[in-house]
Model the fold of this input.
Amino acid sequence: MSESHGLHVHTVTPVDNRKIAMWTLIGSECFLFGCLIANYLINKTRALVPPFPPQTFNVDVTTLSTFDLLMSSVAMVLALHACNARQLRKFQFWTAIVVIGGLIFLGFQYYEFHDFVVDKGLGLTTNIFGSSFFLLTGCHGLHVTVGVIWMSSILVYSLVKGEKWFNSRAVEVAGLYWHFVDVVWIIIFTVVYLFVYV
Amino acid sequence: MAKNLPQTGIIGWLTTVDHKRIGVMYALTALFFLLLGGTEAMLMRTQLALPNNGVLPGPIFNGIVTMHGTTMIFLFVMPLSVAFFNFLIPLMIGAPDVAFPRLNALSYWIFLFGGLLLNSSYLFQTIPAAGWFGYANLTELRFNPTHSIDFWALGIQVLGLGSLIGAINFFTTILNMRCKGMTLLKMPMFVWTALVTQVLLILALPVVTIALVMLTFDRTFGTGFFNPGAGGQVIMWQHLFWVFGHPEVYILILPAMGIVSEILATFSRKPLFGYTVMVYSTCAIGFLSFTVWAHHMFTTGLGAWATAFFSAATMMIAVPTGVKIFNWIATIWRGRLHMETAMLFALSFIVMFTIGGLSGVMHASPPIDSMHQDTYFVVAHFHYVLYGGAVMALFGGIFYWYPKVTGRFMSESLGKLQFWLFMIGFNMTFFPMHFLGIAGMPRRIYTYAPDQGWNIWNLVATLGAYTTAIGGIIFFFNLFYSLKKGKRASGDPWNGRTLEWTIASPPPAYNFARDPVVTHLDDFWHQKYPKGTSRVEVATEALVDPKTKHMPNQSFFPMCLALGILILASGFFVDPYKETGWMVSVFGVIVMLGSVYGWALEEA
Amino acid sequence: MSVQSDHQGHAHTEATEHHGGGPTLYWTFAVILCLITLCEWMTFRFRLQLNLSNEVLVPLLLGLSAIKFTMVVGWYMHLRYDPGWLKKVFLAGLVMGGGTAIALIILIAHRASLGAF
Done:
């Protein structure tokens, strides 16, 4: 049901179906992350045993991972621009940067989780603060992972198909997803990390 | 491969992406689950017919109560509504199919597998028994150590995913695939109620997803979200569940209201009264449904301000609802009423839903609700709105659109017999429950002492249930008998108003030979009656060679992806999860990934 | 969602595809986003030295992240240039989701202020 095989699909709006679907999914995910963030904020002070938030977070390192995710968003929008302009090598380059940026972010998350669990003694089941924290950031990390797989698939497909494949729609929709994942982290960074003493 | 799959036979159905076929699959599966939910109801009523009865021991009774509610809501009313969305939305808006045909098939397969997952609890003899709303911390491992609750939690989780995917699909379809000239305010009322329903699903489902994830984590990994001993809170479950749960009941009723609007207009030979006001009321109901959830929690100690707020909001939501009732009455007022079975069901909706609405408005008052809470008065209320309301409307829809789907009428005499058995049986069962509630009979008890004064009404209720059951048997007979022996129906057997009646019954695979162009609300009616009273013959659209129409290819991948999701969920039943179960889940993820890649790379 | 190229090219392309900023804007925004993140970090790091109470810190940090949020959603996600109804699809989810989250926090964590015992 797309233009891809000449089927003339009359659409009421000038917006592609897939783009509408992705924005709708994003609207839905606002409720998903909204509830996870609310749950975290409610529970962060309710832990009955240590460690507590001030003893665990390393805001300096997390700031670096925030920079990283932001830069991957820049790369994403440059990749889309290159795809629209049909500049193959630039498109592939920036898509690769998005993938690398995502992987670096996941690396930071792994480092942080490892530090929490092994060095600071905060695991998923240690206390309610830990459970809520890992549920929220774990859910976000899962979304990043899906994004990395998605962008890698686009990169590989482009490397295989070359000049024959510039699907701006597909890249734009993937980009919307990626940016949203970044935007959720913008909120989490502030509300979880920067508010640790609030 | 996808291009050459046969369109007939088993493969044809397993790989279909045609919204009409998927609609039929949803309907038949939902009706199958109706049989399960109905049997569960009969078992409960048999046990409660007499005091100190020994038909069902307590624990089993609790399981039957839970499964009855969960099945009727998630496996009957919701999927049957989706069956109507599927079959009708593209036809009513003049589109060739939904926006994402393969995603549509995926939603169905997820529904089927989720329903099977939930009901496989019977096979393993670990029936969930904590109510359809699964309150924590009764659902925690400590109080429910078997996998029963996991069948419930993961079953609903899987079903919710299917519903969300379907909602995004229908939402996009309605916004983007309407034919030329069909502005939003020229869409049939059913499409409007469907649109608002999708919005409710899209926004409410994530919340129950989180709640169920927390519950599953508590039970599988030992987190303490609902465990006060770990710092968690029991009340968190109630809030999260009802933030979803209240929009959910509007998800159940809005499609039915849309069906009633269509039937009443057609069988009164009059347009729906106050169409624009109905649209705004529907939108208002949708929005307000997110502001009332804690009225399910009036007795939990919310505090004066919260209690007052939710009470006011709940009373407010009665206003647009009441507006709709008045508009329906105005629709039939001075109409030339044709009392076919579909019309009888639609008319009964108005009366039954109003009764349910009145008891609902009573609960909106917290002091009164503190008396009603957990009594049969509430059971009476929600059955009047859900059964007397939604279910009656859905049956009306079946009788109304059956000729379009199959090309044959259902038997009117059997239909009317069923209708009266349902009306009598339903009211016999549920009206006395108002009295039982006021007399203090609590909900969810498996038996009662003979000296409480509840005996006679419980017996009457059970007799009503058996009456309904007879009506149900007649319905199923009618449904299948009419397939072969029903009177043949034309493209426009009811003198309808909307676009689905402009094409043949059953419709061709491509729906419309030429994309419709509309200029009015109820455009088909305007074509037939351009000057108001004298009728112009408008022929049913002639069939064309289907090979001249490009249709989306069939695909195996939706079913495969759904299977992967089922395998992922199944991992949680393989103990211990951290050692063996997770490997099953990972295998499920691999199946999912493979299906996604196959899907993305095949020719649509 | 098939991956094949759009044969119809720009026939159904949004008119907005060609404006909405090019690499210059994207890089400019990137620098601004980095600077804001730096500000956030410094505000946090030096909150005691700056004598920032919670009443000041919370709105300040929320405001900074709101600016980042708006920049990414409006320009990187192109929503600024998309039709109004698409903006409403997102805003409905955002506003209602945010409202529900805030309501939950008040109802559960601040029950005392609502007169609960």
Observations:
- Chain B touches chain A through 49 residues (CB under 8 Å).
- The two ends of chain B are 11 Å apart (CA to CA).
- The longest helix of chain B spans residues 58-93.
